[in-house]
Design brief:
By secondary structure, the chain is of the alpha+beta class. It contains five helices and 24 strands. Helix content is 21%, strand content 39%. Helix 2 runs antiparallel to helix 3.
């Protein structure tokens, strides 16, 4: 009898528990309310604001955009090139054939030094016309004023034709007979930086045979951020150092400041004229340029406040009360580790989200119905 009472008690207890569970369960087919979103998007005066449901996220911190002092030395990196005012292309002014070459690439030549001999009937024709005009001028020297004027005009025209073919006045004065060969000479002293002259090859009028450049002074072209342009001007002294000669300082001045700004990097180029004793600086070398300037100011922001998407950086500005505004930010490198320099997009003293920037960025896309 005791056994049956025990079994009856257990059965009643199980039945009671099932009834309780059934009462707590929602009816079949009833909708379950979704959890509230962690953030929502509101628009205020044309600005999109991300409102956090609880005012903030776990582990969310904020940091201020700081304005810091810039030192009195502006440092940038530039590339060395020839001063294009001291580069000359030596071209053939006639059609013909190269008979002799006297110099090769990287040779140093002096002004007036023979560099190449060309064969061209055009030279012989021009020389013959010059000799004929010269003889005619001598014959008509005793004639009337009109005859003398005509003879001088013919001689001047013949001389001018030879000059246009590249023959210098001293060479013209030495012409005694017409010949199809002509030796071209270096127009300036410098280094052969390009050589297209090959013995026996045919040339046409306008073909470049050599390029000459001088390295006594070179250009260094460097980039300056737009917010530093007010600190530089033509005529400022500078120093340049290269990895090839780390213990040697080269001196120069800022010659030009570009009138254009690169919209992608927010930089302008400066062109520096630098003295090059011993021709140590070579075109395409990189150099560190240091310019003495007046002190300035710059904005910096922690790197973990930035999120990169596609081709731009973004930061989330905390306006208080869990309200965040997304901003596009243009940045540059900064000397202090863990920080970036702000070129545009943020203002001094603004507070930006740090630590959970990627999570906030995902909430932003979710609020837009997108997948980050």
């Amino acid at each position: 009898m005791s056994r049956w009472r025990t079994l009856l008690s257990c059965g009643l207890a199980l039945l009671a528990m099932r009834l309780i569970c059934a009462c707590d369960s929602p009816p079949s087919g009833a909708d379950i309310a979704p959890p509230p979103p962690a953030a929502r998007l509101v628009r205020q005066g044309g600005t999109e604001i991300l409102e956090l449901q609880n005012g903030r996220l776990p582990d969310m911190t904020v940091s201020s955009v700081k304005e810091v002092s810039l030192p009195g030395i502006l440092e940038t990196t530039g590339q060395i090139s020839f001063d294009d005012r001291k580069v000359a292309n030596i071209i053939s002014r006639v059609s013909g054939r190269i008979e002799r070459v006297f110099v090769s690439q990287w040779d140093h030549v002096s002004r007036g030094q023979p560099i190449v001999t060309l064969y061209s009937p055009d030279f012989m024709t021009a020389e013959a016309e010059y000799l004929q005009a010269k003889a005619g001028a001598s014959t008509l020297a005793a004639g009337g004023a009109d005859s003398q004027q005509f003879a001088r005009s013919m001689l001047e025209a013949a001389q001018r034709k030879l000059e246009l073919l590249g023959v210098e006045p001293a060479q013209i004065a030495q012409i005694r007979s017409a010949a199809p060969f002509f030796t071209m000479r270096a127009p300036i002293s410098g280094t052969i930086v390009q050589n297209q002259a090959l013995r026996g090859s045919a040339v046409n009028a306008g073909d470049i045979l050599y390029s000459l450049g001088t390295l006594d002074e070179v250009w260094i072209t460097a980039d300056i951020y737009e917010d530093e342009l007010a600190r530089v001007r033509p005529g400022q002294q500078l120093q340049a150092v290269t990895t090839s000669y780390p213990d040697e300082v080269f001196h120069g001045v800022i010659a030009r400041v570009s009138p254009n700004i690169d919209p992608n990097t927010h930089t302008a180029q400066i062109r520096c004229t630098v003295k090059n004793p011993g021709n140590r600086l070579k075109p395409q070398m990189l150099a560190v340029v240091r310019i003495v300037v007046r002190p300035g100011r710059a904005l910096v922001v922690p790197l973990d406040a930035l999120v990169f998407e596609t081709d731009s950086y973004f930061a989330y500005v905390d306006e208080g009360g869990g309200r965040l505004v997304r901003r596009k930010v243009d940045i540059a490198s900064w000397s202090q580790r863990g920080y970036a320099r702000v070129l545009a997009g943020l203002n001094p003293g603004e507070r930006v989200v740090t630590g959970v920037t990627m999570q906030v960025n995902e909430l932003w896309h979710e609020a837009h119905g997108e997948t980050s």
